[in-house]
Amino acid sequence: MNELFSKNFIQRVIWLSIGAFLISLIIWLVGFSTSLSPAVVDENNVPTEQVDTTTTPAYSPKTNFHWSTKTISYHITETTPGHYRQAWMRAIKAWNAVDVVNLIPAGNSSQADIILSVKTSYHEGGGTVENIAGGVVGYTREEFGHVDGIPLFVHQNKSYLIINSMKQAHYDSVNEQASVAMHELGHDLGLEHSDSPHSIMQEAAPTYLYNIPEVDAKHLAQLYEGIPER
């Protein structure tokens, strides 16, 4: 009996190991992944006169991930305070004004491609806002993968404005908060952090921009070139 039990036990261990390996292989082949894109406090916070030297678009995560159509739905959570809701709405209006994508309100949160909200503090990546250089004023969680070989966002993206960090950085006006919201929404659409001194997608989210800069509009247009409207 002990000998039989030992053989059965060994066989179960072998099959469990094979199963775990196959699951890992499938996940790797599908290419499913999650990316976290935080925006830190802009300590300089002044416009620059440097020449834009960006020669190639900066996509998220630098491999052309985008939505399957140019019509993209969003939902602002009910718990988002009024002035932060205004910031998100300004960001939506700014990206729609570029006339590349069409951001539309979803019927409810479960139907939305993008969830827009706030959090009191930043706790992603095992850290808090106090021990992250510069302070994180917003972040976006993207879920992406390859569908029939095409790099696409495959589920809801979620973006947050961080209330405590906004207060610590004295981002008190809706204009300042909207600049951060534009940055995070840029990630939701497929843009990565940019080295361009004119970009809303600078890692240190600029707060002096009220519209989407030309460099970002160009990058978004290139990213969604040939993508159907619906």
From TrEMBL:
<keyword id="KW-0862">Zinc</keyword>
<dbReference type="GO" id="GO:0008270">
    <property type="term" value="F:zinc ion binding"/>
</dbReference>
<dbReference type="GO" id="GO:0004222">
    <property type="term" value="F:metalloendopeptidase activity"/>
</dbReference>
<feature type="domain" description="Peptidase metallopeptidase">
    <location>
        <begin position="63"/>
        <end position="226"/>
    </location>
</feature>
<dbReference type="InterPro" id="IPR006026">
    <property type="entry name" value="Peptidase_Metallo"/>
</dbReference>
<keyword id="KW-0472">Membrane</keyword>
<keyword id="KW-0645">Protease</keyword>
<keyword id="KW-0378">Hydrolase</keyword>
<dbReference type="GO" id="GO:0006508">
    <property type="term" value="P:proteolysis"/>
</dbReference>
<feature type="transmembrane region" description="Helical">
    <location>
        <begin position="12"/>
        <end position="31"/>
    </location>
</feature>
<keyword id="KW-0479">Metal-binding</keyword>
<dbReference type="InterPro" id="IPR001818">
    <property type="entry name" value="Pept_M10_metallopeptidase"/>
</dbReference>
<dbReference type="GO" id="GO:0031012">
    <property type="term" value="C:extracellular matrix"/>
</dbReference>
<protein>
    <recommendedName>
        <fullName>Peptidase metallopeptidase domain-containing protein</fullName>
    </recommendedName>
</protein>
<dbReference type="InterPro" id="IPR021190">
    <property type="entry name" value="Pept_M10A"/>
</dbReference>
<dbReference type="Pfam" id="PF00413">
    <property type="entry name" value="Peptidase_M10"/>
</dbReference>
<keyword id="KW-0812">Transmembrane</keyword>
<dbReference type="InterPro" id="IPR024079">
    <property type="entry name" value="MetalloPept_cat_dom_sf"/>
</dbReference>
<keyword id="KW-1133">Transmembrane helix</keyword>
